[in-house]
């Protein structure tokens, strides 16, 4: 897959100077660095200031110098579990008119913009309504509305009455039904397929433990998606269901509320991806603010201790873990955003800062099949980056000090006016 350019570009190339850089791959940041970004928005060179200035100066393209005042630069975040049209049971659902396509599109566009400004330059959508996500993906690519680069699943697939059937789920039954539902998402342009194989937190009539697909139904999804070279990720809670769907060939597990050491080891052995979305079982204030019903509050927060153990089992086993918030990426949480708080939780559960940063950048790009194009600050990658006041490779809470967001070489957020003060070299 080739990453698109994002709307119009800067008229000149630019050299970002006076910064330290975490490039998305290693364990530490390098100090006294400079980054040359060409006018097409791609990274040309990262290295010592003089080397970079010399290389940019030898190029005929005019170049603007942007002084980052000692800031720390890292790749833009990739949030792998997002619903831009999220409407949890309760006040969120009551306020969103899902039967009004314009209202849904506007809500999703607003959420996309806030997601980008929160530092999420790429989002993987794992369940949206009425194919609005594909229209939004086109609008963002064209530069019509601001938002993260989108990789999207279209509708999540579920059985009749299954998880998500009353929100973003498309109901199907039987192998033929699931094959068709999968093909409908591919026809619409799905980058991946999302399927709900067990109950979850937000379905009133189910439990987390409820198995929801038969083997032949899931096999139909996996075979069809793989034939079309797409990955399949499964919303899944209990260990026995996860063990079963691993054997049927799913590529990733979302939430995994009840992993055991044995199932985590099997995921590691198979190279299965894991998006823990650990915030969803610990965000009481968010649920209170949005007045979710008592049954959901109880189930979500009640799942918390076991969910935390799951994450720790996955870390211990060496499972390939990536960042995903499920909550709106920009939602306020403990004085920061849900995305940054998710990264802090990952560190608290035992991942090193380097592990967490890679889970939010280069590792996520690997799953998306776009390694080297996003998620790293290396030559040829697009210029998606954040500027912070502190070193994220020392402590991921440094992301709380984010003050600039650049996408495709364009500063979409510039709290300190670094770009406004840029001068022509
Ligand atoms: Zn979700």
Automatic annotation (TrEMBL):
Q: Which Pfam families match?
A: Amidohydro_1
Q: Which residues form the Amidohydrolase-related domain?
A: 72-401
Domain of life (superkingdom): Bacteria
Q: Under what name is this protein listed? A: Amidohydrolase family protein
Classification lineage: Bacteria, Bacillati, Actinomycetota, Actinomycetes, Micrococcales
